[in-house]
């Protein structure tokens, strides 16, 4: 089966890179302010954004850039899946929720004490209804992610898939999102481990 | 399906029994496991009943033959995984290429809570041995090492559908011939963190939960662990497998983080695609083990999705959470063990505390333990926060 990386977004060091080129840069070193700067730059009105924790804002932002211009290219959003991984799960918000329990436990924070909530936010935003999963791994294992994705397509579980890494804990953050599709559009990069690695560099 | 995935055995520990046979007896005797909290320390002790495993960590450690400093989640995990292996008919773990896929949402947080009590008071205090197994993956690693599993280890954390997703993943590992055997399921112990969180969401019932009842008021939390032993065609030939994992699917409801869409779109799609994968029609399903948490929202969405898919005469159905409570990441695994065992034994589980059908839906669960049934196909539903919806189908022999 021929699969293609049709879009790729890397967010790290106050910079968003799309398909290898810088798409946005900010002087904000604080993770929350940096993500807010991305939101303002995108000029979209999406009030849910302000309710999200930093991990979800990061995933939301990466998906916005990833699907820009290409979203209409999804043939079937009902079978567009998402597979993400990170190393710190939802620990950042877990800590904040724990803090809130000293006074009144916050339902708004509790919602974000699961790593897969970021999948839900992206699905809600873009209407994606395919298979989802979230892995917690010590580092971004590109080979694993590649093989897992290939198998998802081979077993016809998905027709298109967002895959990648969405990591945030306190001030450290990094996102690497790829859109994988069956037809060669957008970036038109064959879906190989090497190509994923090169885009991640 | 290209190659089969068979259920060679299963194990479970929950608020209604320390092993599978005790759990089945509790269903038969209509003995749900919700009681006043005994092992979890919480200010909500008198307010919310929970389905705790009826043993302290010292007893669990002795059953598991592990240290009492292990997380309760890990102790439950090891006990259920070991039972699953023992009744699979397989020989030593070292004789096969074996994987361990375990789901958890709390991991070793039960012990971190002990640590934090001291640490928050004085940050030069607290025993680090209580915090080192905090993350979900370390619990899986701990148990895998203890069982002697080295070939493949993975942890899945997708809220309340985690256990079902672990089984889906395991099934693919066998179909792709990466492994001969996978022990797959999940484990979660009760923690103050989850109790306070679900309390904050205002979806806990102060009485034993009443899934699919008009007067349902919410869920009860539970704890436990359950695993199935999945094997390939080749190994199944030499064993007496319970049944086959014939279909599964996962879909996102794409509606709300903690609520299901009123029509249960994600629920519907997961069930429909699982049927497609199994190559069967809705009328072929002989029993549905519901997600059935007992919250107003879940049960109405699930009922609507079932009526949309199965028409006005759905198959017999029930929520075993009315006995075990909602065991979070373990729930999909517990219910998969019960569903697979239902096929093997020809039984249907009752739904406890059901009195009044929902006014908007013509759907009523089974309320007594049924024996002597010929079940060809059983469906098990698991839906989680984040819109994560999964459905599994177990089939007799084709």
Description:
The complex is a heterodimer of chains A (about 200) and B (about 400). Helices cover about 35% and strands about 25% of the residues of chain A. Chain A is of the alpha+beta class and about 200 residues long. Chain B has about 400 residues and is an alpha/beta fold. Chain B has a single domain (about 5-395), classed as Thiolase/Chalcone synthase (Peroxisomal Thiolase, Chain A, domain 1, 3-Layer(aba) Sandwich), CATH 3.40.47. Chain B is built from twelve helices and ten strands. The radius of gyration of chain B is 19 Å and the shape is globular. Classes of the chains: A alpha+beta (about 200), B alpha/beta (about 400).
Notable characteristics:
heterodimer, A: 201 residues, alpha+beta, Peroxisomal Thiolase, Chain A, domain 1, eight-stranded mixed β-sheet, 7 helices, 8 strands, 35% helix, 26% strand, globular, B: 398 residues, alpha/beta, ten-stranded mixed β-sheet, 12 helices, 33% helix, 17% strand
Topology readout:
The complex is a heterodimer of chains A (201) and B (398).
Chain A: E1 4-12, E2 15-18, E3 21-25, H1 31-42, H2 54-67, E4 80-86, H3 91-100, H4 107-110, H5 117-126, E5 132-136, H6 142-154, E6 160-169, E7 172-181, E8 189-190, H7 193-200
Parallel strand pairs in A: 4-5, 4-6
Antiparallel strand pairs in A: 1-2, 1-7, 1-8, 2-3, 6-7
Chain B: E1 5-14, H1 20-28, H2 57-64, H3 72-86, E2 98-103, H4 109-121, H5 136-147, E3 152-156, H6 162-175, E4 181-188, H7 192-200, E5 224-232, H8 233-236, E6 243-252, H9 265-278, E7 287-289, H10 296-310, E8 317-318, H11 321-324, H12 331-345, E9 377-384, E10 388-395
Parallel strand pairs in B: 2-3, 2-4, 7-8, 7-9
Antiparallel strand pairs in B: 1-5, 1-6, 4-5, 6-10, 9-10
Helix pairs in contact in B: 2-3, 3-5, 6-12, 9-10
């Amino acid at each position: 089966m021929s699969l293609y990386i049709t879009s790729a977004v890397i967010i790290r060091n106050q910079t968003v890179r799309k398909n290898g080129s810088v798409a946005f840069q900010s002087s904000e070193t604080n993770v929350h302010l940096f993500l807010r700067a991305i939101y303002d730059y995108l000029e979209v009105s999406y009030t849910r954004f302000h309710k999200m924790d930093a991990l979800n804002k990061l995933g939301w932002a990466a998906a916005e850039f990833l699907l820009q211009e290409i979203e209409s290219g999804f043939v079937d959003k009902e079978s567009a899946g998402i597979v993400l991984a990170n190393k710190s799960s939802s620990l950042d918000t877990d800590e904040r929720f724990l803090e809130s329990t000293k006074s009144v436990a916050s339902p708004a924070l509790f919602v974000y004490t699961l790593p897969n909530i970021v999948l839900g936010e992206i699905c809600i935003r873009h209407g994606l209804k395919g298979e989802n999963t979230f892995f917690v791994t010590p580092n971004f294992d590109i080979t694993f992610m590649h093989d897992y994705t290939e198998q998802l397509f081979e077993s016809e579980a998905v027709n298109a898939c967002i895959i990648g890494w969405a990591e945030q804990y306190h001030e450290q953050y990094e996102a690497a999102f790829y859109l994988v599709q069956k037809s060669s559009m957008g970036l038109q990069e064959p879906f190989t481990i090497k190509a994923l690695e090169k885009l991640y560099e | 399906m290209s190659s089969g995935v068979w259920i060679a055995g299963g194990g479970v520990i929950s608020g209604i029994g320390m092993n599978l046979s005790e759990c089945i007896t509790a269903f038969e005797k209509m003995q749900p496991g919700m009681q006043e909290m005994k092992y979890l320390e919480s200010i909500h002790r008198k307010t919310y009943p929970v389905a705790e495993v009826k043993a302290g960590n010292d007893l669990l450690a002795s059953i598991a033959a592990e240290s009492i400093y292990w997380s309760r989640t890990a102790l439950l995990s090891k006990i259920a995984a070991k039972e699953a292996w023992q009744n699979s008919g397989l020989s030593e773990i070292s004789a096969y290429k074996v994987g361990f896929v375990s789901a958890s949402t709390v991991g070793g947080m039960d012990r971190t809570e002990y640590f934090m009590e001291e640490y928050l008071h004085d940050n030069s205090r607290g025993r680090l041995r209580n915090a080192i197994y905090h993350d979900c993956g370390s619990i899986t690693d701990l148990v895998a090492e203890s069982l002697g599993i080295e070939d493949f280890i993975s942890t899945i954390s997708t809220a309340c559908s985690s256990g079902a997703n672990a089984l889906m993943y395991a099934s693919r590992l066998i179909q792709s011939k990466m492994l001969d055997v996978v022990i797959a399921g999940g484990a979660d112990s009760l923690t103050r963190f989850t109790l306070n969180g679900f309390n904050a969401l205002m979806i806990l019932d102060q009485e034993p939960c009443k899934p699919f009842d008009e007067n349902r008021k919410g869920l009860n939390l539970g704890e436990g662990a359950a695993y199935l032993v999945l094997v390939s065609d080749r190994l199944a030939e030499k064993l007496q497998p319970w049944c086959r994992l014939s279909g599964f699917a996962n879909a996102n409801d794409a509606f709300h983080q903690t609520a299901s869409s009123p029509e249960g779109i994600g629920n519907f799609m997961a069930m429909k695609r699982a049927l497609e994968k199994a190559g069967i029609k809705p009328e072929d399903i002989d029993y549905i083990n519901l997600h059935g948490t007992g919250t107003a929202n879940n049960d109405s969405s699930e009922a609507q999705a079932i009526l949309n898919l199965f028409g006005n005469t759905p198959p017999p159905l029930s929520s075993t959470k009315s006995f075990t409570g909602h065991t979070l990441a373990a729930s999909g695994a517990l219910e998969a063990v019960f569903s697979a065992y239902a096929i093997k034994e020809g039984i249907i589980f009752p739904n406890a505390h059901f009195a009044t059908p929902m006014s908007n839906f013509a759907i009523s669960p089974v309320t007594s333990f049924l024996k002597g049934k010929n079940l060809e196909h059983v469906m098990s539903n698991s839906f989680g926060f984040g819109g994560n919806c999964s459905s599994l189908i177990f089939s007799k022999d084709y």
